Amino acid sequence: MPIHVRAVEGEYAEACLLPGDPLRAKYIAETYLDNPVQRNAERGLLGYTGEYEGRPVSGQPAWAAPPRRS
Question: CA dihedral in degrees (8, 10, 47, 59; nearest 10)?
Fold first, then answer.
């Protein structure tokens, strides 16, 4: 598990959505997942695990730094 994801093995489902925006991960969890649990908040990267149609699903932003202006 990458060091910026502060979670214990097994807290994330094998099926993991990787939105580019941390607030989108929160929206997905609150809107589509049953029983969502926040698993990570390191560096503002809000990660959640819950269930969708009875299957475990996680959402963890795959956020990257914005492009630099030269």
Answer: 160
